[in-house]
Design brief:
By secondary structure, this protein is mostly beta strands. It folds into two domains: 234 residues, no CATH class; 34 residues, no CATH class. Helices cover 9% and strands 25% of the residues. The strands form three sheets. The protein has a nine-stranded antiparallel sheet, with helices on one face. A two-stranded antiparallel sheet has the order 5-6. It has a two-stranded parallel ribbon with strand order 12-13. A hairpin with a 3-residue loop joins strand 2 and strand 3. The longest helix is centred in the N-terminal third of the chain and has 12 residues.
Length: 291
Amino acid sequence: MEQHNGAAVFPDPDRAPGKELMGRFRRLARSSPWLWNTIQIRIGVNDKERHELAFAAPSQPKHLTVLVRRPDAIRVEDENGTVLFRTEHINDSRDAGFVAATRKSWLLPPQLLAPVYGDDGLVSRRPEASYGNELMPVGLWGAFLDPVEIAGFAPGPADMSFPHPSTIHALRELRDEAGRECLEAELSRGHSYAPVNRDAPLLGPGLTRVRLDRATGICVLHRVLDGPDAGLEHRVSITAVDEYMIDGLFTQPRASLSDVRRAPLWPIPGLADYPGPPAPDHARHRGGPAA
């Protein structure tokens, strides 16, 4: 196994991040499921080659608005408010289909489980739960909303030299353009790195800059610094957190009841030859007397 030397891990030893700050960054990466219930974000979809974040839409939108209500409700809109994707069913019941399914079907949402917290209130060790990453219409979105893959579900073994899924080369605290507190790190893949979605890894083969929002744990900046995808950047803007979202935002609209006070007029065959007296405006049948 190739061993990392000090210069490779920390190019500038005088600015090497402290152990406490690195631990906070990893705990923040594990904490997203317990930091928010509903979120509204704005995602740019026009990167240089329209891949990873590209979303099939006739209007070729530059930005998408994504609403998520945990555990299983998603809505995607373009700049004009046109709905491009939304959840077909929410709050599915546990019927006979779940009895015959695997144990994964019976996993609880993370909000119903208690993780192991650190002293700073962030998650140190995550339980096995139904995290819902497969619900996203684009694989990388799941990694943005819950970037646990860069930290792992639990701290690595203490007897390993590089026990974490990613190696932190630089780390700093900052405020983004909207004034939100963030932690930003330059990372590379570790030996145990395993992306949640293998087709959409959050970390590239070289160095990747990742910025996590301090209040929600969401990855708001992803920039590949070297390798074949160098220069590729994705940004996420958080516009609302924990606002009330009704079911109608996420489900298909259903036909409403008719107003019986103004019943529709239906033609009845055979009455055309006997029109009868003129029908009032509220008549039920056209071409015949009012019912």
